[in-house]
Amino acid sequence: MARTRPLKVALLGCGVVGSQVARLMTTHAGDLAARIGAPVELAGIAVRRPGKVRDEVPPGLVTTDAAGLVARGDIDVVLELIGGIEPARTLINSAFEHGASVVTANKALLAQDGPALYAAAEKHAADLYFEASVAGAIPLLRPLRESLAGDKVNRVLGIVNGTTNFILDRMESTGASYGEALAEASALGYAEADPTADVEGFDAAAKAAILAGIAFHTRVGLDDVHREGITEITAADVASARQMGCTVKLLAICERAEDGRSVTARVHPAMIPDRHPLAGVREAYNAVFVEAEAAGRLMFYGPGAGGVPTASAVLGDLVAACRNKLGGGVGPGESAYARLPVSPMGEVVTRYHISLDVADKPGVLAQCAMVFADHGVSIDTVRQTGKDGEAKLVVVTHRASDAALGATVESLRRLDTVHGVASTMRVEGE
Amino acid sequence: MARTRPLKVALLGCGVVGSQVARLMTTHAGDLAARIGAPVELAGIAVRRPGKVRDEVPPGLVTTDAAGLVARGDIDVVLELIGGIEPARTLINSAFEHGASVVTANKALLAQDGPALYAAAEKHAADLYFEASVAGAIPLLRPLRESLAGDKVNRVLGIVNGTTNFILDRMESTGASYGEALAEASALGYAEADPTADVEGFDAAAKAAILAGIAFHTRVGLDDVHREGITEITAADVASARQMGCTVKLLAICERAEDGRSVTARVHPAMIPDRHPLAGVREAYNAVFVEAEAAGRLMFYGPGAGGVPTASAVLGDLVAACRNKLGGGVGPGESAYARLPVSPMGEVVTRYHISLDVADKPGVLAQCAMVFADHGVSIDTVRQTGKDGEAKLVVVTHRASDAALGATVESLRRLDTVHGVASTMRVEGE
């Protein structure tokens, strides 16, 4: 692998992550060269607004012509850190056509167009790496794709959005409302000005699609992922979880059905028991819990976002892509041979925690219990509390299909004695 | 990568791990073929005593001639699961000479002879993979070698021995003595008949050498690793840790010095704060906490031993070695370019928890404090308890060199008013 010509890298996007990648490529140049087996050189940095480029960035390399940079013909690896669908997609395809491998952190594009990108990479015998797209700095996709390549993953439970984990953690530790915790997250820079993508679960859903695809060797698109956010979570929900010895987390859950013949992917808030390793994941940290047939229960934990941690993941992929360029090999491509059908949310089997406001009179519990029985949903525990003519009924079910649980809740709502369904939440990780 | 001839695999050793590898290669044959890009075939299984072979193993493949199997000339990958130094070393070298790549779980051999094995692999353009040698099923070495290849690891703190973690966890959760907890571990199959390798830290020390070598791109041998076991840990130590909000764990610690110019590797029991992610690692689970300059604080958690989990790691490496065979590439070899010196234990900087039995009379605390000051060791907290003329002094120091801390303890022992040093333990993870 002796070679004197440096490998040339084009950096697209120079924001929070890109500027750190540029900085680390300079400060760690010697280590990168030793680990790759050849020097690596930043050949150009494409930005939208050159006036906004940060101090870390060598100014002579900056251009606004991303398309021209990618098409120069001498670029070995393109780092796509622009995000969003276009122009990122066109630039990545151009990179492959011009003989470059691609490292990207673009979860939205991968979740939407992963198969086409994989196909383009394969056609041009190039690499497509995207460790940074899920759970930031945590080495997760490489372990799933490579270390567990001889195993069978049955379930992935992930805290993959730092903003929502911070908000839920504050609600739990301080008793704050959702609004108060969101305000704190915004003030500390953990939530964006428009927090919709995070708090409504869109960000986590894109990551769930990527994770499910890799875990199950099956194409899973964004539309296959059931999605619920955390905006409806109340301080009372969090307190009720505490009473059960549980913590509320926004989880991305990818599951193989018990018969092994289909999979599901979903994002929603859920209660998990305090003894589960994910329950201890605080603040804006991410963690992904993997259950594999042979390996058993694994967890990967670390910072899920931030410019510097995410840059670490990008640079790890850069080293791999450069090593492959030098060695003549190519990293793992798409693995979708299993072609398992993705079942809708209704077929997910899980447990439910349901909190009802009911009339405080005899027979209400029996009436409610009958509704559960009618839908074939078995009750695990019931807790009844009441004062001043109003009572609360908290029911935790055994495992049942989400469709049956949903229908049960609908029927409960129609009972005269049920004044309201205060909350419903799934219980996971048991 | 279209190819019809299957890749041929020789399995050396068919004990707890090997028999599971053989079983999974059969039951997962279709998945392995899809993930590799060609079928993979078990060509032979070398055992010492063919009469003892388990049910899972196809009997026609069994041989006692390991050397002949490896030298057949048509073997693509050799899985070395015999353990120990010889004949494993000779067989691995023969495998390389005959054109095969090698997957091994042999931590003892790697810690002793890693550089020679790497050199042999490189000479023959073969792969040497050994994910299963450290922390069983947990994907750890691949993330360290590849995902963090663009980052700088500053510290690795690992619970890498399940037997000792089980014993310490029982001591903490039940108040048992070391002997009682060891007996329970033996009864449950977590400790071997002769537990020396585990409880005296030899097993963890071999893993520490491997981890430090990979983390710091520097050769670290077994002799470079300071080693203390857990046999002296008392119920009182564990209770004292609890009082400080700490847990006692046997840790493998690999550290870069603050000036970045040297590294250390050590295995010893230590107190870590309950809020540290490693504190929650219970029973026989393993976990490795990694602090990297850019990625930040990462943790990898899972089963550290057992036939089935370890087989998962072996098969992951098998897939990688087979993919490289087909694609013409080769995985990462030895990376020891940094050549950092490994400093002795005396230069390690850490904190100490020291428990002294002292005379219950005025001036003792002042006298002891003077000894610490004389050695330049600054005291963080002191707790004094006493009854019936005997008193206890528990001192927690600030960070100081291990040499200074050791000298302090020696001087304390020589004081007339100090009747004994009940225990000394390092405090880590803060």
From TrEMBL, chains A, B:
Entry EC no(s): 1.1.1.3
Record keyword Membrane present: no
Cofactor(s) in the UniProt record: a metal cation
One Pfam family hit: NAD_binding_3
Native source species: Streptomyces marincola
Binding site for NADPH: 107
Gene3D superfamilies according to UniProt: 3.30.70.260, Dihydrodipicolinate Reductase, domain 2, NAD(P)-binding Rossmann-like Domain
Described purpose of this protein according to its UniProt entry: Catalyzes the conversion of L-aspartate-beta-semialdehyde (L-Asa) to L-homoserine (L-Hse), the third step in the biosynthesis of threonine and methionine from aspartate.
Location of the active site: 207 (proton donor)
Binding site for NADP(+): 12-19
Reaction catalysed by this enzyme: L-homoserine + NAD(+) = L-aspartate 4-semialdehyde + NADH + H(+); L-homoserine + NADP(+) = L-aspartate 4-semialdehyde + NADPH + H(+)
Residue ranges annotated for the ACT domain, each copy included: 353-426
A GO biological-process term: methionine biosynthetic process
Enzyme class: oxidoreductase
Keywords linked to the UniProt accession: Amino-acid biosynthesis, Metal-binding, Methionine biosynthesis, NAD, NADP, Oxidoreductase, Sodium, Threonine biosynthesis
Protein name: Homoserine dehydrogenase
Binding-site residues, L-homoserine: 192
GO function term, MF aspect, one: homoserine dehydrogenase activity
Family statement drawn from the similarity comment of this UniProt entry: Belongs to the homoserine dehydrogenase family.
